[in-house]
Each structure stands twice: as structure tokens, then as C-alpha cells.
TrEMBL record, chains A, B:
Protein name per the record: Ferric uptake regulation protein
Organism: Acaryochloris thomasi RCC1774
Keyword hit for ATP-binding: no
Keywords, alphabetical: Cytoplasm, DNA-binding, Iron, Metal-binding, Repressor, Transcription, Transcription regulation, Zinc
Gene transcribed to yield this protein: fur_5
PANTHER family given in the database record: FERRIC UPTAKE REGULATION PROTEIN (PTHR33202:SF19), ZINC UPTAKE REGULATION PROTEIN (PTHR33202)
GO biological process: negative regulation of DNA-templated transcription; regulation of secondary metabolite biosynthetic process
DNA sequence: CTCTTTGCAAAGCGTTTGCAGGCCC
DNA sequence: GGGCCTGCAAACGCTTTGCAAAGAG
């Protein structure tokens, strides 16, 4: 479990600050049910509902920052906007199977993919943040659908 | 090699048309050196230079169509715009290691990832279009960089 | 001859940014 | 106290869309 203190330490280490907003956002993602991911706007709404209004720009800045720190994963499901979820280590780390027509997504796990990702980054001297296998496909329902495109 | 005829057949099968623009765009991607990928705008410029001007909207419509047909792959390198490349089958199929700071990308191949993708789609009855492992990381140079964020 | 596709220009929309005030360390 | 961070509103830039004309089958 990644704590606020760990976040603070990591931020301060780079000359940055731990703010209430950043702490709140971290908490939200940690309490999200497994497999649930949020867009910036969904996060904005959720925070508003729970009585912690945070401006959209701060949200955008924070999720980007946390993604680059490896705390969140940025998911691109080709819907025109990004989704975010907490970046869980093994054995919670997972990947996505996505229907390009209806955007239905199914999660799945794979130790070997994670291993390959880790090894590949290492081999080139990269510092790994996240590795995700995205399978773009058409789900059974959409295969049968008559709707064009 | 995916021919114009194959494209025509596949389009007509769905009641669509093979147009000069679509044929030209397919050809461009087929002649691109391995590992090279284009954004919509880059493709637009390239076509212009080679004397085949095609409007940006047609380009957007075409790359989206071909991605959904599984002919092109849509690559998201988090630069705010998508890149496209021809979707090669085994053994040309590859994945990307991306630096989230400078966007440098390194390609790598992996039979096992492709197998896992194929199997996973199959298991859920999905029709596979593309599977890509994206490794988000920080490259050696950027790790050393003093520039914030 | 019908229905798809193109090109143009305008609209759309998620995301970024400049700036003044506020806050963390 | 200094510099980072927030919130607001405006700007941005990639992508999509409406529409009339052109073209494929």
C-alpha cells in the first residue's frame, strides 16, 4: 500500500510539495474497486460528490504527475479521453482486452507479460513505470451487430 | 502483403467502396520503412509532397476505418496525437518501449506476447485486431536530466 | 441510379496554460 | 519567506461533423 508519507517523501525529494489535493486524489484511487478506472472528469465529479471539490486543471496536473511517477497508469481506450487507475504491482497488475466498437473492456492477468516488460526495460536501461498489453478486438455482440462501422 | 484487391473485396463485402484515396493511403503505409509510423498530419504532408493531396478529414476517416479493419495499428505514445503503422502479422509484429519524458521509442518483438494476446481474445470470443504491449518508462538520458517533470 | 465518400469549413471537446493569490516546507 | 501549487478562465490543437458535390458499384 502506497502511503501519503511515501508520496510526500517522493515529492519532497524532487523539491515538490504534498498538498491536500494530491493526498485526496491518491486516496480516491486507492479506494477504487479493482478494475475500476476514472477519467479526469469522472474523478472531478466523484470528488465533488464526496465534498472534496478540486478544480479540473489540478486534477489534470495531478494525474499526469502521478502517472509519470509510476503511481497511476494512464489507460487509452481510444474513446477520445484517458482513464486512470492505481498502478498495482504483481500480482494485482493486469492488462486489458478492449472492443474497439463498444469499448467494453475485460481485464486479465499475465505474469509472463509483466516479466517481459520488466526485462525489456531493464535491457535498455529504462526505468520502468508501467507496462500494459492492450488487445484491440471486436466483441461477440459487435461481431453480430448490423450497425455499420 | 495485403493487396488493393483484398482491400476492395473486404470493403465491398460490407457495402463500402474502394476509392483512390484509400488505395493511396494503403500504399503509403505499405512502403513505409519498418518501425516508421505516421500521425494524421504527417501522412497529410507526405501525401502532399508526393503529389497526392488528400484532405485531412479523409485521412482521419481512413486511418480510423483501416484500424477498425485491423489493417493499421493505432499507436498512442501519449503525445496528444495518435500514430499509425501497418499492422504486420508474425514475425514482423512488434511492441514499443516508450520514454514518457522525451517520447523516444524502441521497438521489440515478442512471440509470447502475441500468443498471449491471440489466446486471450479467443478465450472471450473476441475477433482480434491488434495486440500491443506498451512499456512506459524513463530512458537513461532522461533519468539523468535535471529538467523537472 | 443509388448510396457511399470526399473536401471544406466550422464546430467539438478533452486538455493545457497564464496568471494572481494561497500554501507547503 | 521563497518557490511550488491551486483555481479560474481563456486558449489550444487534434479530431469530428454537416453539407453539397463527386464518384464507385
Amino acid at each position: 500500500m502506497y502511503t501519503s508519507n511515501a508520496l510526500k517523501a517522493e515529492l519532497n525529494d524532487k523539491g515538490w510539495r504534498l498538498t491536500p489535493q494530491r493526498e485526496t486524489i491518491l486516496t480516491v484511487f486507492q479506494n477504487l474497486p479493482e478494475g475500476k478506472h476514472l477519467s479526469a472528469e469522472e474523478l472531478h465529479d466523484l470528488l465533488h460528490e464526496q465534498g472534496d471539490p478540486i478544480s479540473l486543471s489540478t486534477i489534470y496536473r495531478t494525474v499526469k504527475l502521478m502517472s509519470r511517477m509510476g503511481i497511476l497508469r494512464e489507460l487509452e481506450f481510444a474513446e477520445g479521453h484517458k482513464h486512470y487507475e492505481i498502478n498495482q504491482p504483481y500480482p494485482y497488475h493486469h492488462h486489458h482486452l478492449i472492443c474497439v466498437k463498444c469499448n467494453k473492456t475485460i481485464e486479465f492477468k499475465s505474469d509472463s507479460v509483466l516479466k517481459i516488460g520488466t526485462k525489456t526495460a531493464q535491457k535498455s536501461g529504462f526505468h520502468l513505470l508501467d507496462c500494459q498489453l492492450s488487445i484491440h478486438a471486436i466483441c461477440p455482440q459487435c461481431q453480430r451487430s448490423i450497425v455499420p462501422n
